[in-house]
Amino acid sequence: MNTSTDRIERQIHIKAPRSKVWSSLADAESFGNWFGVALKGKRFVAGEPIEGNITYPGYEHVVWKVVVERIEPERLLSFRWHPYAVDPHVDYSHEPTTLVSFELEETRDGTLLRLVESGFDQIPTHRRLEAFRMNSQGWDAQMKNIDAYVASH
């Protein structure tokens, strides 16, 4: 396993209490608002799937599907998904998933949010690099999105 291609790691310091960051992350509807997926009226439940249409322009045809792995209130939310599964004509269900973990740590003046997406080395070779590249860029944007969402709500 090559850790430079197997995992994406990002972190951001958000100037808000951990409880506020947690509610923006763990409340499915709030998550959908900053992430860009329609999750109105839905809940994250450990061990259960959740899905909704992407709301980002140009990707509205994509159904975002994850299986929630773990929820540890105000500390950890993780889920599994098929990375960069955007072609509606492809059945990704036979492929391995990656694990996305959000961890929160209280700091003196806010909250440190760490994101790790791991498991790319298990993705089929013909998709691996593009999925890694696109998700890497996506997480850069999503860290800014959650920071802006928390600041405005």
Automatic annotation (TrEMBL):
Pfam families: AHSA1 (PF08327). Keywords: Methyltransferase, Transferase. SUPFAM superfamilies: Bet v1-like. CDD domains: SRPBCC_CalC_Aha1-like_5 (cd08898). GO terms for biological process: methylation. Residues 15-150 form the Activator of Hsp90 ATPase homologue 1/2-like C-terminal domain. InterPro entries: ASHA1/2-like_C, START-like_dom_sf. The keyword Methyltransferase applies. Gene3D superfamilies: 3.30.530.20. This is Vanillate O-demethylase oxidoreductase VanB. It comes from Dyella psychrodurans.
